[in-house]
Amino acid sequence: MTTAGPLERTHLVGIGGAGMSGIARILLDRGLEVSGSDAKESPGLLTLRAQGARVAIGQSATNLDLFGDRGPTAVVVSTAIKPDNPELVAAKARGLTVMHRSEALAALMAGHRVACVAGTHGKTSTTSMLTVALQHCRLDPSFAIGGDLNESGANAHHGHGGVFVAEADESDGSFLAFVPSVAVVTNVEADHLDHHGTVEAYTAVFESFVDQLEPGGLLIACADDPGSAALAGHAEARGVRVRRYGRTATGSDRDVTLLDHTPAADGGGVARIMLDGSEIELRVSVPGEHMASNAIGALLAGLELGAPLPGLLDGIAGFGGVRRRFEFKGRSADVRVYDDYAHHPAEVAAQLRAARPAAQGGRLVVVFQPHLYSRTRLFAAEFGAALALADEVVVLDVYGAREQPEPGVTGALIAGAVPLAEGHVHYEPSFEEVPPLVASLVRPGDLVLTMGAGDVTMLGPELIAELDRRVAPA
Q: 370 with 405: CB under 8 angstroms?
């Protein structure tokens, strides 16, 4: 299947980003020409160049000439690209077709049966589980995910199975460009209020997303989450087919009930579920009941897409996780170090609960980096309560990303809200001081979890190196 038209020669501004690089990969897989630019070099850019993309470092109007005299047929941007970006300004001045990232992804979905996974959190893991399970069933789906699969190391792929699986991003409402036949909504909790403004507006965009389902489409909703459950009611009132899942999903024979979840010694877990009147064992290799819940959502989506139940169960059992989702980074001095992308209070709490059994009796030490000034200001108390599930807490300063600093909004707001005894909460705004601080706190047998959506992910290897240095012979 080849996509031509405006995407015949595509230039992507910010091509190294998670969403943009995925689009570039699929375009290249389909034999189309790709160019792009990014602020700095990265391993992902090296991979794209190896696949044939023409990539420039830095933002300049001349980057639109990477195809030579022919020029791009479309310029793709994301919400993060500012109106005064020189490449965007030049594209408009030349009269080129400018597309949002979601519009380009929607164009790539044409001709496929589309499954979208949305939710405030859990969507990357659920999309990944569904993708790996379908691959195990030899359906070869196309996919675009916000994280790299551990199995393939890729976040996107052009498949030949006629199915397209995509993570649907609600942060800027761009998922309204999609018309799925299957939609999974893991949860709906207040977030991204810097864009949506109010909780009501954030909720409303999910309702609009469900309204985008194609005629006869299916919504799969988590009954345990109040926001997702309310969305299911909205959908049913509009005549949309709905399947619910979770511990509280007992309302109809189309519900899938989570009867029990037992953590496994290897860090995963076993869920017992009631599906279509039969009790089934669902094995998940990643820890936490929240991951088992995500696996049920993926299972239901796979069944709706026509995959066989035994193959889906085997595929989910073999799912090796997603990078930055409780990803093991290494061990030193009998201290294990993991990294996780959690950056919303509910995500932090869920992951810390999942990490507790994995600590195997050792203490749980979390190194948390707040993401966005607005989120820090709005949810400081909720972050504090979530982080209190750990034994030792180190809070970094705010990773501002797209936002400008706000007076008085620092990581100290969250550190001050953690209700742990004195001496067990530490605010450390200096990035380079964090590894020696954590190394001084940990004991043999502890589990350290670096957590956040920013550059905190770089601390894992640095902490392991610091621990190695401290135990090395003089």
A: no
Query: Residue 315's pLDDT band (boundaries 50, 70, 90)?
Result: very high
Percent helix, strand and coil across the chain, each rounded to 5?
40, 25, 40
Domain topology for 327-471: Protein-Tyrosine Phosphatase; Chain A (3.90.190)
Please choose, from the candidates 152, 71, 85, 144, the residue with its C-alpha nearest in 3D space to the C-alpha of residue 109. 144
Q: What residues are labeled active site?
A: 123-124, 167
Residues 344-388 pLDDT 10s = 898 899 889 888 888 888 999 999 999 999 999 999 999 999 999
Domain boundaries, the chain: 5-99, 111-317, 327-471
Query: Looking at 414-474, which runs of residues are DSSP E strands?
Result: 425-427, 447-451
The model's pLDDT over 245-269, given as tens digits with 9 standing for 90+, comes to 999 877 676 789 999 999 876 678 8
| H/E run at residue 97 | strand 97-100
Which tens digit of pLDDT belongs to each residue from 410-469?
999 999 999 998 899 999 999 899 999 999 999 999 999 999 988 898 898 999 999 988
User: Which residues are CB-contacts of 295 (< 8 A; sequence separation ≥ 6)?
Assistant: 126, 129, 271, 282, 284, 316, 319
Order of strands, sheet of 74-77, starting from the edge strand that comes earlier in the sequence = 54-57, 33-38, 9-13, 74-77, 97-100
Q: How many whole angstroms separate alpha carbon 297 and alpha carbon 299?
A: 5
Coil, strand, or helix at residue 3?
coil
**Would the CATH topology of 5-99 be identical to that of 111-317?**
no
Q: Hey, which residues does 197 pair with through a beta bridge? A: none
pTM score of the predicted model: 0.75
What CATH fold (topology level) applies to the domain 111-317? UDP-N-acetylmuramoyl-L-alanine:D-glutamate ligase (3.40.1190)
Q: Could you report how far apart the first and last alpha carbons of the chain are, in Å?
A: 62
Separation of alpha carbons 260 and 302, rounded Å: 22
Please answer whether residues 29 and 157 qualify as being in contact, where contact means their C-beta atoms are separated by less than 8 angstroms. Answer: yes
Average pLDDT over residues 237-252: 88
Pairing of strands 74-77, 97-100: parallel
**Sole residue written with tokens 């109007």:** 61
- CATH 3.40.190.10 corresponds to the domain 5-99: no
The residue among 289, 396, 264, 421 whose CA lies nearest residue 343 is 396
What is the number of residues in the chain? 474
User: Do 14 and 79 meet the contact criterion of CB atoms below 8 Å apart?
Assistant: no
CA 101 to chain centre: 16
Residue 319 vs residues 322, 324, 328, 451: alpha-carbon distances, Å: 9, 15, 15, 22
Alpha helices (runs of H) in 275-308, residue ranges in sequence order: 289-304
SS3 194: helix
